[in-house]
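retry 2 of 3: previous attempt timed out while embedding MRU. Reduced batch size to 1 and resubmitted. Inputs unchanged:
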Amino acid sequence: MQINGKHFRTIWVDAENRGKISILDQRQLPHHFVIEHLHCLDDAITAIRDMHVRGAGLIGATAGFGMYLAAINAPENGVDEALEEAASRLNKSRPTARNLGWAVERVLAAVRTVRAGGDKKKQAYQTACEIADEDAAFCKQIGEHGRGLIEAISRKKNGAPVNILTHCNAGWLAFVDYGSATAPIYAARDAGIAVHVWVDETRPWNQGAKLTAWELQQEGIANTLIADNAGGHLMQQGMVDMVIVGSDRTTHTGDVANKIGTYLKALAAHDNHIPFYVALPSSTFDWELAEGAKIPIEQRSGDEILWISGMGHTGKIESVRLAGPGTQALNFSFDITPARLVSALITERGIVQPSRQAIHALFPDKVLSLSHA
Ligand code: MRU
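retry 2 succeeded.
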């Protein structure tokens, strides 16, 4: 993705120092563009838990590099123990995004294949890099598959801009590059299709207002920020042609966990006969879970609702209190959209119906060992 005309990924290894992983501190965006460095497992855990990085794909990539940092900081004969401990700690840092556990498990499995005397640290490095590269490649493929859906609507509208509503940030910032929900939008733009994006502000953390609007602006995509409650009205007014959102965890039967408020958008889209698509790389599928109701839903501090942050007059990021003292707040971070409200899933292998049968047919290699699930 381009920032002021320069290409960036959201996470990368320092060219001169492999023990230094760079990320963008997303808490500072869109006001300040701050590059932060991770040197050890604790740095990676803090970055994930406190949302310096966020979004399913990027959480997975950061967890992969967190495992690598744990490996290189371990004594030569203690890499296995260090990785077991790192896995357990990383897995607790944020519970909903499936990509986290998937990435941790992938590094563990790769290091287990190293024979006695082999270079486990090198293996951890290679696997973390593969996770990040694959995330970018899969998002690009999601873009290619999803572009056709936008193109079909554009044809029906005789080339008038296609109005796409999105929730939260399932863009480049939530992955390593391209994003999932945004990849079809970028691919459509590249193909000369006129697009316009309605960006839900996405209370309480405001990923839409702070991140998606900024990201789309950087890429030159027309977009308009809307209050979370506005989507239903826009749909009734014929101002939304399609919805594309991301996912933090999707069951292998097609139920989708995504940022809180996604379910309400899916209900409104269903009532207004507007297609509702979910874009995700296969690393977001939970091959063990068949019911959305069993997906662990993160609960975060009520302070995220009681307070709001932004740039103050001093040019610094400041927080102000919204609700009166003593107000109680409950902050579920994700909700579940049942498969019946999802028109289709857009994956790196193609577009698939949100059903067990269709998902298993597209990913037979992933479900081979799961006849029990
Ligand atoms: O709490 P976050 O910001 O890590 O939540 C993740 C998200 O950004 C969304 O739920 C997103 O739509 C899916 S993640 C690709």
